[in-house]
Fold each of these.
Amino acid sequence: MTVFKPASSNPSFQNSIEDRLQIKRLLEPTLIISTNAGSDVVKGLTQRPKTLPPRYFYDDRGSELFEQICELPEYYLTRTETKILQSYASEIAAITGACEIVELGSGSSTKTRILLDAYQKQGLPLHYLPIDVSAGMLESSALSLLADYPSLQVYALAGTYELALAEIEPKQLPNRMICFIGSTLGNLNPQECDVFLSQVKAALQVGEYFLLGVDLQKPKHILEAAYNDNQGVTAAFNLNMLEHLNWRYEGNFDTSQFAHWAFYNELEHQIEMHLKSKRSQTVELRTLKLNVHFEPGETIHTEISRKFDLNRIQQELKTKGLVPQKVWTDENQMFGLLLCQLQDKG
Ligand code: AVJ
């Protein structure tokens, strides 16, 4: 269901914010009940060890908590990637030229502003297609961007990457760049990563671009501090997933009976986040007709956050026809930004 007003037919007239905004919801609550959505939760909570998909972090509250994480002194990722973007955004705009900026997991779109500024400076048209599972976040960030960029057009999609990548509107500009920044790729295990990159490839035409931000491998103490902050914001973010399930599936998780647990798995080069049951307890999710029993100390695995090797990820992208054109990093090689071009569809 799309609700928007047709753009003004008089081009000399400055279009209002509503005229420049489209939001399409691929995740309506009714749709969720009528399809088999939630089956991922049932599957995750009935296996051993228990798991939940990380996208359940991002209800409106979770998206806000993530914004707070980005500001934490221990969480170097956002700050570092922002610096890299500030240094190279004009180069990115020069390479891609006029292009639609599709952003997966756009959140608050704060870093996107750096790109928009660069395109605007070069006199390029601004078409932005943010995709996020949090519709509230999408709407508020789109409105704030539209107020600040008078020529910006926003076509927002509320939904999962998979749904959204298959639903992107026909292109109105010569080129397209799919942006996946913030190291969200790290949430996918190697197999899911492979599937995802194939979906990106399928959504692009030869000659189009993929901008990828990845967190790089580094000493354990730095990584573990970033996921166990002193103020407990990451713990609140992890626990909020249970509140989200309570809301979405009429659950009765008591978050005071679970604890945040995050560590770096050096063998797999990944941060793992879990929620640990403080006691024996049974939780009900009414909508899903599911009762879940927890032993004391039993865990739910909520997230992996993989840390990448710049050479390896470049190789992997190449096997998908996504050939890195430019690879940038910060002075301490904490974070990497790669601009790839799709060179073959084969
Ligand atoms: C948004 C997936 C990149 O893995 O660092 C932050 C999410 N989890 N703190 C990350 C997250 C815990 C974040 N990503």
Note: Residues 270 and 306 are 4 Å apart (CA to CA).
Amino acid sequence: MLEPSTPVQFVKGIGPRLAEVLAAKGLRTVDDLLHYLPFRYEDRLNPRSVAELRAGEMATVIAEVRNSGLFRTRRMPIFQLTVGQGRNRLKCLWFNAVYLQDRFQPGQMLALYGKVEEDRDGGLQIVQPQFEILGDINTNDEGGVETAEKEAEKKAAASLEIGRIVPIYESTGQGKLTPRWFRRIIRWALENLGPDLPDPIPAAVRGHLSLVSAREALWKVHWPDAGESFNDLQSSRTAAHIRLIFDELFFIELGLELKRREQKAQTGIAFQLNDGVRSAIKKILPFHPTTAQKRVLKEIATDMQAPNPMRRLLQGDVGSGKTIVAFQAAIIAIENGYQVALMAPTEILAQQHYFSARQILERAGYRTVLLTGSLEQDRKRDIRSHIAQGHAQLIIGTHALIQDRVEFENLGLVVVDEQHRFGVMQRLKLMKKSEDGRVSVERALLPASERSSADPEPDVLVMTATPIPRTLALTLYGDLDLSVLDELPPGRTPVVTRAVPDERAPEVWDFVGKQVAAGHQAYVVYPVIEENEERELKAAQQMHRQLREKIFPKLHVGLLHGRLDADEKEHVMREFQQGKIEILVATTVIEVGVDVPNATVMVIEHADRFGLAQLHQLRGRIGRGAAKSYCVLMRGAKVSEEGERRLDAMVRSNDGFQIAELDLELRGPGEFFGTKQAGIPNFRVANIIRDRELLEAAKREAAFVISGPNSEISKDEIERALREMRSRWAMSYGLVEVG
Ligand code: ADP
Ligand code: MG
């Protein structure tokens, strides 16, 4: 009898060698194998007859081999096969397929799948169809002598190939492990699975969603009933699929929910929000806050007043005005006698926050310091002692704030800006244990279970401009509460975006010149891909020279890139901010947060090579004032299809959320968040884009389960669900820990 946890090696037909091949695909246990789902199905119960085929459709056909042959064209050998049913014929072609030469014999039955087209003679053909020779079971492993047992097996296997809806699996192991191999193996595993254990999903939850049992789901996802809707199968929407997808999402959400509650149960700081504090918050405002800003501040203030620590994610598109909200939250903490740390991902952004903080907060009497890695040692030491003694109230910095283990006198609030820019490594660092339990930024971001409990927990506000679709935010940051700034400050006009071929650069420069003549400023950006930093840097320098000397000899053209030292960067930024530099040539260092409302044009070179999220971030640097802004995406002659779609998306939409969704679809969640971002679970069956509704349901049900026993759900059931959750988290999401 097999258990879900049994290694695949104990499945009949899998020896140690194949077990290794499977392990490389992440298939180690029987459970993994059973969750290796067909990526499509073929309807071999009601296959199309050759006579019914129409050009343009994807179809499964079962037909008999008539003849085949290899013919050579000037460019390549082509293998041609003709199959038929009665008088009707269908031609199949494979390019470069010499290996197919001896594969077929007249009279064999074939299942073929592919796109039907008209051929040159008005007949029908399928080019490169997928095929299976029916009733021809050649086992791939441990071949050997034909026995009666093997013969019987062949018959049984053949019955899996025809007269039913047949699962098609992705081949693997360099094609050796074919769909039919998986069919046979998975079927055997299903038949030999030990008795069903109690369902780890509580009955009430199953009831809410009419979920079928896990065992039934596994059977039917591989071997659907004859009456199953073909559409539902192909879109993973059968009852069987839904059960398996829900399983996966539910236990993730259960873990996140638990983590969230644990964090909430910690002792935090209950900040006072009296009239004095209220008026202090209002006093600093240089403008009327938007409705969204007011709402979000209220959510934050409510958290801060509560005796438990705040763990909140603030999402807002570029330019939605997150900074001022963070400053307001900072004032609540400072007015209560606490210190605030504001962490930015780059020095430029930290400097800019410092610049704004001095204008807005220092003017109101709050003592602000900037602590970045590039400061001189002496200066750093001074600032650190200021912080340790509690003189500094708002401390702005890069992740040096974490790396250097800055000590605070009494840290009350941590704001992490542009959290998406902190890479995986930094995130891991944030999670690292602090041995001494001192109050540090690092410690505030530790999972609750790793902190000493002596001091109250500071509040944490994480801000991001990567507008992660809400459902995804729920999985990724499910342990945080979510606030969204879904409104831009008034008076902004959407940025006009155009994709322009490189040849038209002269017109573009002409346009830039006119904007500058009208009193505006411009960016010319060379986005940097990390591997190519050197090259992009050179390109930026060269462009800078050309623009300054040849194209705009009368204007001030500045250059900003990551290799400049901090003083130079600050100097260039200040000159641009003050309008002394009219055109700023820059690498992607300006991607986040830079705020110069008078800049109305951005020219992005090689725009087609860069990710949507990055392009959108860059574009967010303009359109910040009342004047109309223009983003010009320069493109080379050869643009990949995906590059084309990205440019197109940029031209059509200014909405970060829309763009993020598209980006996610184009690239998939893994890529979307960069190199295997920590915290993204690796899903076996769920697809968070396709399954967002199930994700919401899973979240809801997880909260229901965690809220404790009631008439619908027993303590035993809850404990069983939690046990299952822990074992899954331990196995699959090892990084994240749950108590
Ligand atoms: P982001 O959310 O991208 O960090 P910022 O906080 O930098 O955005 O704000 C973008 C610009 O909008 C800044 O120039 C800021 O001063 C301005 N701004 C923010 N809120 C408002 C508002 N309510 N009314 C007018 N301007 C605002
Ligand atoms: Mg910002």
Note: The chain has a mean pLDDT of 84.
